[in-house]
Amino acid sequence: MTATLELELSTPVNMRDLGGTPIAGGTLRDGVAIRTDDLATVTPEFAATLVTDGLAAIIDLRSPHEVQVTGRGPLADYPVAYHHLPFMGSIKAPAGDAPELTHELMGEMYVGMIDRAAPLIVTALDIIANATGATAFHCAAGRDRTGVLAACLLLVLGADDDVIVADYAKTGPNMPAIMARTRTAMSAVFEKLGIDPTAFDGAALTDDGMDVSMRILLGSVRERHGDALAPLYAAGLTGDTIAKLRARALGA
Description:
The strands form 2 sheets. This protein has a 5-stranded mixed β-sheet. It has a two-stranded antiparallel ribbon with strand order 2-3. With 252 residues, it is of the alpha/beta class. Strand 5 (55-60), helix 2 (64-70) and strand 6 (81-84) form a beta-alpha-beta unit. Helix 3 crosses helix 7 (211-225), helix 3 crosses helix 9 (239-250) and helix 5 packs antiparallel against helix 7. The chain has 9 helices and 7 strands, in the order ββββαβαβαβαααααα.
């Protein structure tokens, strides 16, 4: 995986199949889309189980710096399609004092992410639409970049805002375990970039109230564009991709 960093392999602590989510026309079936925290540091046994259970594609949303530190991990040994779609081109040190990472600030970050990464989001949706099995998508925590892609997928499938917010908020109770699992790899990323790892204090993000971030995203995008999917249409989302996603989701 890496010659310079000893990583403790572990199972994800924020993984969930989106199967069972209410969408337009019914319920999203199992085995289509799995959202998760980092798949690069899973154990070989867990990797084998994922593939046996039908994993066909991985969408890695991490930055190039994160991928350089950990590589792809045990799943690189399997014939699973791998797509690197970095929703953030890099991780940068904040100018001046590091801002407090509040739920409100994260919501505004998500709005900017959709504006910047819309073409990559469309590519990810195309991958899920055309996969022959389950697609797992992940960043480091399975919360922010992963949460934005999950929200866009559920919007395309016609899920209500309350459903999208509820799925996003399920990560909240997992935050302490997420921070513990990702601490070694993310500290190495920060050090590689010359950033003080303590400059990014995520303690406030373990508080209740995660739903605020997703409601800011959904509300702000609609306020700016009228339709929450407008940025994706402008970036190339087609009716054909939407039809394929809905057919896969409903098992048609």
